[in-house]
Amino acid sequence: MHIGSILAALDWIRFSGPNHSLELFGIRLVGLNADNGKKLLFSAVLIVALVLLSKALRALTSLIPGGLRNERVKFWTRQGVRLTVSILGVVGLLSIWFEDPARLGTFLGLLTAGIAFALQRVITALAGYLLILRGKTFNVGDRITMGGVRGDVIALGFLQTTIMEMGQPPAVQSADPAMWVKSRQYTGRMVTVTNDKIFDQPVYNYTREFPYLWEEISLPVPYAADRGRAEQILLDAAHNHTLDAAELGEEAIAEMERRYVMRRADMKPRVYWRMTDNWLELTVRFACRDAGVRDLKDAMFREILPALDAAGIPVASSTFEITGLPPLKLVSAPSS
Predict the structure, then answer these.
(1) In whole angstroms, what is the distance from residue 18 CA to residue 26 CA?
(2) Which one is the CATH code of 134-205: 2.30.30.60, 2.30.30.30, 3.40.50.620, 3.40.30.10?
């Protein structure tokens, strides 16, 4: 009786038909057959092999020594590994599951139509990733503003770019999102921005090709002050703490002139005057590196202020001049 029950149970689960399809209680389960079982096994082996290959190649890239240039080599090597492994995986899985080209064409047509409808943003983000790799939008380690986020690029994925966020200078403190760090220094937040933003918004790159910036410091001085001395104080501070044209190197200057049609004289610090209703505004313009701007300005201010005090030049502030008052009548209270 026990053996009969076992045989009866085995009869509920069996493989039948030319494809050895699985039947459960006499019901044939679609897609569950010996052939698909082999394909599942081959797919699992392929995925495991690709994962191991990816880890091995990433381990080899970690052997590249440090340094900014080598870090970028590592980055592009990792991107190449990811793309190669992904392509091998897609081609391998399609080869395993669709040996018939007609079936493959039908499947790809349906899949493409479904993806185009349901995953529009994902496809756009992936297209943005390919454009970033092919073009010269930005690289890992570049300082950019993308999607309203300012910071250094620390990772680039198929769909998202990860940025180490920086604060905003006082001139743009009102920008969204609000910042509590009032300079271009890290806030400690890592922000992910989808790659499709490069199609919708401009991407500002602070370091690509020419890793220098032009900065300015404005100083309001009274019209009665020694304006020439104030200008010289600003120039001395700029020369002492900022880049000299010779520090940029002949190659960097030539590249700058070729790309931006800039004159060499523009690289030197220069002070510009602007008249206002209350004071004379002196603005010193100078070139500096893309990083460490806050420390640079701090050092300049610490030199400028004592020099102004020694020269007897005050910093102007807003003043109001009262030109007339209505007559005032004072009435004393009667004594009790």
Answers:
(1) 16
(2) 2.30.30.60
